[in-house]
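Protein data sheet
==================
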Amino acid sequence: MPEPAAPFALMVRFTVRAGSEEAFDALVAETAQGIRDHEPGTLMYACHTVRDHPRQRIFYELYRDRAAFEAHESTPHVRRFLTERRALLDATDVDFLDCPGGKVPIVMFMGGSGA
């Protein structure tokens, strides 16, 4: 039996341009709806606000595997987000993550969507 594909995760810290917080959050909400509706390989897509830093947003994204991430990046709702966010941001920092240990949902290894 072949080894299951490894989960793929990343964390993104956005610094939203002053005065663009509401527009950015609305764009995120629209994008998240598309992800929920059309991306079974996206296991988690969470956007967090940061206490005491009202212009910061931290995203945690977890995908079934690298292929699911690549599919995510090519969807119309994500392409729109990637284009429209540029005017709303001062900075973007991305960290790609490895998970050598911990607790990972079993559905990831059984081909489930995690939803």
The radius of gyration is 15 Å.
